[in-house]
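cache lookup: miss for this entity combination. No prior model stored, computing from scratch. Input as submitted by user K.M.:
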Amino acid sequence: MQPIIKLHDGNLMPQLGLGVWQASIEETAFAVSQALEIGYRSIDTAAIYQNEEGVGAALQSASIPRNELFITTKLWNDDQHDPQAALENSLKKLRLDYVDLYLIHWPKPAQDQYVDAWRSLIKMRQQGLVKSIGVCNFNIPHLQRLLEETSVAPVINQIELHPLLQQRQLHAWNATHHIITESWSPLAQGGEGVFDQALIKKLAEKYNKSPAQIVLRWHLDSGLIAIPKSVTAARIRENFDVFDFKLDKDELSEIAKLDIGKRLGPNPDLL
Ligand code: NDP
């Protein structure tokens, strides 16, 4: 059974989902269809990925009851001045009346619009256009500003997080404020520098799993939500086959030592 996380607004979110960054509309439609067939119910897209139509097409042909799905999309930086128009555009492409989670994609501090954008998200939640609202790539000062100026905490902070960049301080701060941390690039974008680590290989052998499955299990056992991306049917299946084992405390502590603070994406303060 796939694990489910309760968000601080009471809504439920699968702990493992499918990411679709850098997939074309056709690849996305294929990957999402495969994933839904295997049992995934959570899909992570964004307006800037330009593949929301692919998600929408796959959802339509799968005919899974809407309340069993958990669909996330994101507000792009250039649209922070008008989140409602951006969301309506996304909903059209997704062929949905609402999304389960809408995220501010980057704080873009130099633009200084994220607090007003957050106020719009709060309104859109009240109108029922989104069930839950959150952010991506927010550092502690950005989150503190949201809390001080609106008193509404995001349910999720989706950040770059994998064994080479574990973000323990930010994860702990999120937890103190009941914000769930969601890992983007959970496989470090294909596992370079991770899958070939002796420790990961040793654990893969012990549990008879692949290195990717060990890394995904580490996310789940660390209380993180993970959204590995794949457009390859066998990998989509492999990444979902992680619910029949658990890493123990010592193994989690060993993996903690792999953190070298290596970012694969931009630093949110500088973007
Ligand atoms: P991931 O860490 O999920 O890695 C994806 C890469 O790993 C792809 O090249 C994929 O190949 C490969 N892969 C997938 N499964 C396996 C496996 N079992 N064994 C070996 N290789 C594998 O990287 P992403 O950067 O895509 O991150 C995941 C998701 O996070 C994104 O798709 C997006 O939804 C979200 N994200 C959010 C960001 C934000 O700013 N909020 C930024 C970046 C990502 P293939 O597809 O060819 O199978």
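stored under new cache key. The chain has a mean pLDDT of 98.
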